[in-house]
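Model it.
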Amino acid sequence: MMKKIKPRHPEKVKNPINPIKKKPEWIRSKLSDSKEFFLTKTIVNQNNLVTVCQEANCPNITECWSKRHATFMIMGDICTRACAFCDVKTGKPEKLDPFEHVKIANAVNKLNLRHVVITSVDRDDLPDGGSNHFKEVVLMTRKKNPDTTIEVLTPDFLRKGESYKTILEANPDVFNHNIETVPRLYVKVRPGARYFASLELLKNAKLNNNKVFTKSGIMVGLGEERDEIIQVMDDLRSADVDFLTIGQYLQPSAKHHPLERYYHPDEFNELEVIAKSKGFLLVSSSPLTRSSYHADEDFAKLKQTRLN
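Modeled.
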């Protein structure tokens, strides 16, 4: 005789760790030209490349790829860190691809990019954090695409000495490193990083090459207070950072850091006004703002500020 299986009571079903809050009406991905989108996807796939657009589940991928804008993520798709906000895989990375610098340069050429953003996973397993590999990618991309401006979005190279200088030797046009959140939340949100180490990196990048534009970004909605955001702005200006991005944190899954709240567009506008009053050359602040969102247009604005 078969044993009857008792149905589970709803109250006994385990709830997700951090339930995801419903998105408000102002957070909607834009639909764009599907033909250009699939062309970008084809070029990325044919060159066997990794993009942060895909790995980080970016909400702007449809819009950006429809404009042939893709942010390349080098040194693999597995990160040695486990940040609580990030959707990139964590684990033991594979060996570096010795041909990646050629693949990236060719893809930039085929996409006919006037401005390209190159980022990477953290590679704490490498003695130099991957800075020499990063440099090779930048140099080859510039050689193949002399008219394309290059923006690097780097790891913090924590405990890697002055490895960051290796990337600056390739003379990128923009040196970007995201501060991500306020210092109080680092232990929970970014446990493998150190707030003041990231500030020092940005400060030293500018000191090492005063011709490079420095850039950083922060997410809101993680549980920070308004005064803490303003303090981060002051800290970044003390590090002589030129460009600040402020965007809404979107919780990737129930296992990630909980989203405390969605900021209204008016609040982003207010933060932009405050940031500009601090002396940043450029501020991008909106719910869907990300480090590389509209990066080409923003770089054109940055260049204009220098001319003025």
